[in-house]
Each structure stands twice: as structure tokens, then as C-alpha cells.
């Protein structure tokens, strides 16, 4: 985990920890009661794929909510949720900020010791993920709907069994396209526009802000936009060791995330401090962050159970899982820490 991972450690020690705690208490009134000492800082190792989906984590770090709760985040960048899964199962990570994939559900079926504790964000009625197609195919009238993608090459970041694969299938359902009706090409989001313009693929499921960039550069045409509102494919997952040996820290970690989510509601999403945090960890430019429809970040960090259940079923029925019997929800999720965090913070 040291060779490929890029570490960004957010540490507040000594006076810095005390000062951050006092400031947060003054502003939010959610710190320890008068006369009670702040928690001793604890290191929590968190793996993430740098996506705006995990903005609550970045805001919680940058605005001092983690420090307020005595947590020092050791942030490790990974290429995918599947990579993080291995380290979570081995207790080499405490938390994974990851996208759900078929491999995650296979791990639950094998009873690996980890659980989903919160959904990170969800699509609103408008969102920046789009199904795109080649300009020549669209302008000629050959491809004007997802129905006409049958038998064609489709680019999806992560390839078979990825969250992107699932999202494309959600859109494809509108045209009666099944999981075996197209050829899937594993291609990172930033490369989709060029691949479409060069004719290497016929369509793509492209996430924000890369879909907007491809359209702005005249590399593609939009085929389907703003579909499947309420979908939530990214989660925070805890390792078994973190839950068993440090339940108090696990609860405080979610408290910090909830405080960050509450500091991002409505117009506050675009506060300069928040935008600076998004930009720092995702590399997305300010103007793009402010122009794209924001994701929804629930102020209670709720679990979007319907997406988890539908993803498990979709991957299993598509033959992307290594099992055939449906997984019970309790084998995949726990609400224990979210409920404990809300009991302390209030609704």
C-alpha cells in the first residue's frame, strides 16, 4: 500500500488540535461539554478514489471537524474500490471511501469482515453523469437513443462489474438493452471524449465533470442525461477491526462526516471553504465545480438501501457475481454507527 498510494495526512497536534476544537465548538456547538477534555487524537487510515462523491470527507478534514473529534486522518489514494477492498479485509485500512462493484458483493458473500456504514452522496433530479455517443452517429440519425446502442462498443470507467457498468445498465434499461447486448470497454473517464471523437468507441457512460468537458470541446453528443435520480453508488465502508476494536472512534468519524454534510447544504455547498476542499482533493477547477449540478449530501449520512439492493441484484443476474443466492441486507450494511452519531448530534 506504500508503493502506489499517495498519502495526504491531515494532522492537527498540540495547540492546533485544541484551537480547531474550540473554533468548531464556538461555531457549531457540537464539541465536548465544558470541563471535559477533548479526545486524544487517533489516527484513522482512509482509502479514497478522488471523486466529488466523497466531498464530505474532504470538508470534514479541511474545516476541522475531524480534528474537533480527536481524529487524525491518514488519507491514502487508491485506483478503485476493489483495490481498497483487499486492504479493508486485511484490517490494513480503517475506512474505505469507495464505489460499489461486483467484487464488493462477492466479498460480502465470502463473509469478509467489513460493512457499509453510510452512503456518501446521491444523484439529484439533475446530475453531471451522462451517456454520450459519437457525433457522426448522432448527426446521421444512426444513434439517437440508448435502444440503438445494441451491439455497439461502450466505454465505462472500471470495466465489467464496476459502478460505472451498473450506471450504464440503469440508462440502458430505458431502451430495453440488457447486460449482454453491448461490448464493454474499460476506459478512464478523462479519455472518453477523445475515444468517441476518434471512433474507438460508439458511446460512453461518462461521469462529472468529464462529460461536460467532452461536450464543451465538441467531442461527443449527449444521448441520455439526468436519468435515475436518487441513485447512490458510493459509500463509506468500515473494516471489521475498526468496528470491533475502536467503536468510539468509528462513531466520532461519522459525527465529523455528518457535521461536514450539514455545512454543505443548499447554497452553503458553494462556500469558498467548501469549494477549496473539493478542489484540493479532486483536482477539479473552481469554475467546473460551481457550474455542475451538485450531488446530494444527506445531512444524516443515511444509507440509500434501494441502490445497494438493486446493485447486488443487477450484478448477480448479469453473471458478474460469483454466487447466485441473494445476499441479506444485514450481511452488507450496519446502521449502528450512524445511529450512534445522530443520537449525539441530534437530528
Query: Sheet with the most strands?
Result: 6 strands, mixed
Percent range for β-strand residues = 15-25%
- The proportion of residues forming helix, as a percent range, comes to 25-40%
Order of helices and strands: EHEHHEHEHEEHEHEHEHEEHHHHHH
Could you tell me the radius of gyration in angstroms?
21 Å
- Going across the biggest sheet, name each strand in turn: 1-3-2-4-11-5
What is the straight-line distance between the termini?
A: 38 Å
Shape: globular
Structural class: alpha/beta
Mean pLDDT: 88
* DSSP, total strands: 11
Given as residue ranges, the uncertain stretches (5+ residues, pLDDT < 50) are: 1-30
Helical segment count: 15
Detailed description of the structure:
This protein has 347 residues and is an alpha/beta fold. Helix content is 38%, strand content 16%. It is built from 15 helices and eleven strands. It has helices spanning 15-28, 55-62, 65-68, 81-89, 102-109, 135-139, 163-172, 192-197, 210-216, 240-245, 247-262, 272-282, 286-291, 305-317, 336-345; strands spanning 7-10, 42-48, 71-77, 95-99, 114-119, 130-133, 153-156, 183-186, 203-206, 221-225, 234-239. The strands form two sheets. Strands 1-3-2-4-11-5 form a six-stranded mixed sheet, sandwiched between helices. The longest helix is centred in the last third of the chain and has 16 residues, at 247-262. The chain starts with 6 loop residues before the first strand and ends with a helix. Residues 1-30 have low confidence and may be disordered.
Amino acid at each position: 500500500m506504500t508503493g502506489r498510494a499517495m498519502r495526504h495526512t491531515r494532522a492537527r497536534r498540540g495547540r492546533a488540535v485544541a484551537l480547531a476544537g474550540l473554533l468548531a465548538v464556538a461555531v457549531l456547538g457540537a464539541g465536548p461539554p465544558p470541563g471535559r477534555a477533548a479526545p486524544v487524537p487517533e489516527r484513522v487510515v482512509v482509502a479514497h478514489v478522488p471523486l466529488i462523491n466523497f466531498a464530505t470527507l474532504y470538508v470534514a478534514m479541511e474545516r476541522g471537524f475531524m480534528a474537533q473529534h480527536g481524529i487524525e486522518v491518514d488519507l491514502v489514494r487508491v485506483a478503485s474500490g476493489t483495490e481498497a477492498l483487499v486492504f479493508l479485509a486485511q484490517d490494513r485500512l480503517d475506512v474505505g471511501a469507495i464505489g460499489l462493484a461486483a467484487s464488493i458483493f462477492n466479498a460480502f458473500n465470502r463473509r469478509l469482515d467489513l460493512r457499509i456504514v453510510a452512503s456518501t452522496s446521491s444523484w439529484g433530479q439533475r446530475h453531471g453523469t451522462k451517456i454520450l455517443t459519437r457525433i457522426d452517429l448522432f448527426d446521421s440519425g444512426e444513434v439517437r437513443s440508448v435502444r440503438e446502442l445494441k451491439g455497439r462498443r461502450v466505454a465505462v470507467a472500471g470495466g465489467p462489474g464496476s459502478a460505472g457498468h451498473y450506471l450504464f445498465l440503469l440508462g440502458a434499461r430505458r431502451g430495453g438493452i440488457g447486460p449482454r447486448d453491448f461490448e464493454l470497454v474499460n476506459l478512464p473517464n478523462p479519455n472518453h471524449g477523445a475515444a468517441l471523437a476518434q471512433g474507438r468507441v460508439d458511446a460512453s457512460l461518462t461521469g462529472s465533470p468529464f462529460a461536460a468537458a467532452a461536450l464543451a470541446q465538441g467531442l461527443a453528443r449527449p444521448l441520455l442525461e439526468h436519468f435515475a435520480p436518487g441513485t447512490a453508488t458510493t459509500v463509506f465502508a468500515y473494516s471489521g477491526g475498526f468496528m470491533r476494536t475502536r467503536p468510539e472512534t468509528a462513531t466520532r468519524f461519522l459525527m465529523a462526516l455528518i457535521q461536514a454534510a450539514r455545512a454543505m447544504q443548499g447554497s452553503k455547498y458553494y462556500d469558498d471553504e467548501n469549494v477549496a476542499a473539493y478542489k484540493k482533493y479532486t483536482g477539479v477547477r473552481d469554475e467546473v465545480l460551481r457550474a455542475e449540478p451538485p450531488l446530494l449530501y444527506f445531512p444524516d449520512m443515511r444509507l440509500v438501501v434501494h441502490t445497494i439492493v438493486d446493485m447486488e441484484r443487477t450484478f448477480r443476474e448479469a453473471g458478474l457475481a460469483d454466487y447466485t443466492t441473494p445476499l441479506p441486507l444485514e450481511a452488507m450494511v450496519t446502521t449502528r454507527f450512524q445511529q450512534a452519531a445522530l443520537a449525539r448530534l441530534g437530528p
